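Troubleshooting log. The previous structure file for this entry was overwritten by mistake, so regenerating from the original sequence record. Sequence copied from the archived sheet and checked twice against the printout by T.R.
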Amino acid sequence: MAAIVSIIPIVLLFVLMLGFKMAGHKSAIITFLATVVLALFVAPALDILPRPLADANIFGLVGWSFVEGILKAVFPILLIILMAIYSYNILVESRQIDVIKNQFTSISDDKGIIVLILVWGFGGLLEGMAGFGTAVAIPAAILIGLGFKPMFSALVSLIANTVPTVFGAVGVPVTTLCNEITPGGAAPLELISEVSGNAVWQLSPLFFLLPFIILMLTDRKPIIKNLGLAIWTGAVSFGVQLLCARFLGAETPAIIGSIAAIVAIILFAKLFRGKPTGEQTAKENASKPETVAYTLTDTFRAWSVYLFILLFILISGALCPPVNDFLKSNLVSKVELPIIGSTFKFGWISNAGLMLFLGATIGGLIQGLTIRKLLVVLARTLVNLKNTIITIICLISLASVMNYSGMIGAIAAGLVAVTGEYYPLVAPLIGAIGTFVTGSDTSSNILFAKLQANVAAQLGYDPTQTHWLVAANTTGASGGKMISPQSIAVATAACNMQGKDGEILKSAIPYALIYIIIAGLMVFLA
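Regenerated output below.
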């Protein structure tokens, strides 16, 4: 009964967005209010409030949960979304997006090649460096700039932004997962490497399936070509990520794996380019616009926004420990949240939002925009994101209320009680639920890492099996990312599709279900 009641907010959100086709921000507000009512008047009666919160003032508990939700939503998620879209809008304002568009189309005339490079390669790189919506917002916006339809751009960006989220934001999700199950909270590198490798193995079929799905959504006709490219791209991505995970840990698999994927796709485009007949060549040359030859300076100017973003993220991240340690230990704000016993921390100079802002602004200046013009672009971006801001604040607050009121724990416990020894089949589903509610692979790992480890102990698993089951949480969480309302809110903002959240969710659900089922079978059969 506790699990059934606790799942009401999730079901309500689906019904409002899919059944009533309600806009995302309106659905989020109604669902948040319903969650508050359940937390105030139903959760205490069901006795699901976690200890020692069970004796706390329930109104204070919900109130401070809401405060935590607002803080987490703004710092850093909304900041990163704002800056990611700001960076794209700079390219539009300076018209350098046209140069990037021409350079992408010059790689190949094949739409599938272009889309796969953008969402699987470039998107994976953005996820590995920054995470928090950048890998959806920026590729989707560029695809629209290249002439692709908004719904298609949103869908393929969401599908691609799954596998790399395991190692997003320089490996934070896996590192957090391992810290949660380690006494003292400092996981050794050996454990991080083992769990990282486990996650790659569990996702192995999806390295091949997802590129194929993306290519088929782009163009269904060349099935053989799509299959060959998907196998080639998947093999390179899987092999490189597995090696990085096993020998380097969680920081680099998504970054290096995505760079390798970009190189692999370009090689495929150059080596397996079709040989049209003379008549076909004549027709194509007649319809093609004249090729523009860009100098190194032109290329640098056009890509300066993303080059500086990449530079700042790499310098400030775990790949440069001295700088990373300095940034994380200076100008850090702490907010004590009473009753829930939580401390919110935010680094003003260590967050990815600042790195995106600095990179985008410097790139914009190089592209010829003035400081005043950049401020206008930033203000316009902020105004256009008003519904996204409401949506994400409500959803993060909803997740916080569900967590502290015991609802998320009740859902997980209900699944454990029902499945028994078949629990490994649904272990990824629990991770997916965590991401669906919170919008974050990292947050899902915080919520459910200990649960997965406790279930492994109840089932009598040895350490190796336990680490395999724990990895299933982040594996499933990456699939839940595809249909997380927060990810969809990012997509609607990037594609200027406000109010179309339900349509995007409906189109993504079948792929998310396939993803989670495959992950469950991989975890269970192994």
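The longest helix spans residues 58-94. Archived copy saved in two places this time.
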